[in-house]
Design brief:
The complex is a heterodimer.
Chain A (H helix, E strand, L loop, with lengths): L2 E9 L5 H17 L3 E17 L2 E13 L1 H13 L3 E8 L1 H16 L5 H7 L3 H5 L1
Chain B lengths: L1 H11 L1 H8 L23 H4 L10 H5 L11 H4 L3 H16 L9
Classes of the chains: A alpha+beta, B mainly alpha.
């Protein structure tokens, strides 16, 4: 089952720019060979970490948006765990959230006449109203 | 005379009103004669600004709902509505996991 995931990972800050590119490319390669399709790659740049990770205070944040099944994600996570340059990662499933957002937007478009606060408060319960 | 006695009653009014407040919480405009306690009505930021998605990547927004030491600020202080607080909490926890927010600041 193909789902949309976001994989955010932190690369250690002492790598060269080209090495980072190479690393991202190889990780993408792992993902695609495992059966995932990469939708977007975003380098979010160097950031100060909120706490030390493996004795690093900074890190390069990279965000991958993937369409993959659970197995592919599992494989990618395993690979990242092994890869030393990746100091931390998190995978978040996005498809359910995206669906919810779409629903909310649609409802908002339909109920534009309502006062804003009331409409916003009513949103979470809207599925029942709809049905 | 009757007017005066009425006045006294209304001046005593705040006390029972204060008791009621902890209950339904909607007794603010009921007794115009009595002393009024102004407590600003807190509103949910996410409802007012129509922020649908509370993302763990949006550190700026999340930081407003985290105390100095990194604790999540309770709903009763921020005025965030329950559904949004729920999403906010999970977003903050995700952000902590990826070192965007601290678990505990020094």
């Amino acid at each position: 089952m193909q789902r949309v995931y976001e994989v955010m990972f932190i690369v250690r800050p002492d790598l060269l720019e080209e090495d980072v590119e190479k690393l991202i490319a190889t990780l993408q390669g792992y993902a695609t060979t495992a059966g995932a399709t990469v939708q977007n790659v975003e380098k979010m740049g160097k950031r100060r970490l909120a706490y030390d990770v493996k004795k690093f205070q900074d890190g390069l944040y990279v965000l991958l948006t993937l369409q993959a099944d659970g197995k592919a994600i599992h494989e990618l996570e395993r690979r990242m765990r092994v890869t030393e340059q990746v100091i931390k990662f998190i995978t978040v499933r996005m498809d359910e959230e995206q669906q919810r957002l779409e629903k909310v937007r649609k409802l908002r478009a339909a109920h534009t006449k309502r006062p804003p606060a009331e409409a916003a408060v009513a949103e979470p319960e809207t599925p029942t109203v709809n049905a | 005379m009757a007017d005066e006695s009425n006045h006294e009653v209304s001046s005593h009014a705040p006390r029972p009103q204060g008791r009621e407040r902890s209950g339904p919480g909607g007794g603010a405009g009921r007794d115009p004669g009595g002393r009024k306690f102004f407590r600003r009505k807190k509103v949910c930021k996410f409802c007012v600004e129509k922020i649908d998605e509370i993302s763990y990547k949006d550190v700026r927004t999340l930081q407003q709902f985290v105390a100095e030491r990194g604790k999540i600020v309770p709903r009763r202080l921020t005025g965030v509505c329950t559904p949004h607080q729920r999403r906010l909490t999970s977003a903050i926890k995700r952000a902590r996991n990826i070192a965007l927010l601290p678990f505990a600041a020094r």
